[in-house]
Amino acid sequence: MKHLLIATKNQDKLNIICALIDKLAPSKFIFSDLKSAEIDCEIEETGSILERSEQKAREVFGILSEKQKQQFWAVLGIDDGFDLKQDGPGDPDSKTFAHALLVGKAASIGETIWIKRGFALCNRSGMQSIMTALPFRYVGNPNGVSAKEDGYPLAKVLTPIVGNVLHSQMSKTDLVDYYEKYLGESLSKLLSL
Predict the structure, then answer these.
(1) Cβ distance 43 to 55 under 8 Å?
(2) Coil, strand or helix: which one is 122?
């Protein structure tokens, strides 16, 4: 089994990505995040979504000790942003976009929101990265969800493209299946599955 260090402190992101990778390659990976690996670092994020995922992977890999570099097969950096177009570059300022969406200024009800997710894999062999796009439909914010709420507040205002179940109300299995539909092939290639 390969030990993959996921360069995140976000437990929601960690849980869904680990479940997705495990579905794509059952029993091929062991996962750690920055907290469980006892790695405390702050990474200055600049540039595009893809560049930011690469910064995370490169910087975390760079601070690993030789022993840790032998322990971990690779570091996976992940960064997210949003776009109203599937082929758009995505806005890496996700906090500003999320706030604008929650107050009804970023999109109209029924409009597709593309979660742009950059993945970067860094190990002794070098760096590889991919950009993915995951579509959701904005259903409005009748409950007044704020960006300051715990967890992932946008999960309370987005549904899959087909269906009316909010992201926050989807079962983990359904959510992983949805992510696999849009990210599975690209992520499989990146991880050489």
Answers:
(1) yes
(2) strand
- d(CA 135, CA 117) in angstroms, rounded, equals 11
Alpha-carbon distance 115 to 165, whole Å?
17
CB distance 68 to 105 below 8 Å:
no
pLDDT tens readout for residues 69-110: 999 999 999 999 999 999 988 888 888 999 999 999 999 999
Q: From edge to edge, which strands make up the β-sheet containing 74-83?
A: 29-33, 2-6, 74-83, 112-123, 126-138, 158-160
Using CA atoms, how far apart are residues 145 and 163, in angstroms rounded to an integer? 21
Q: What is the pLDDT of the chain when averaged over all its residues?
A: 93
Token pair belonging to 101: 């969406």
Cα(16)–Cα(154) distance, rounded to whole angstroms? 15
User: Would you state the pLDDT for residue 182?
Assistant: 96
List the structure tokens of 188. Answer: 């499989």
In terms of Cβ atoms closer than 10 Å to its own Cβ (0-12, 13-18, 19+), residue 144 is exposed
Whether the pLDDT of residue 151 is over 80: the answer is no
Domains and CATH numbers, the chain: 2-190 (3.90.950.10)
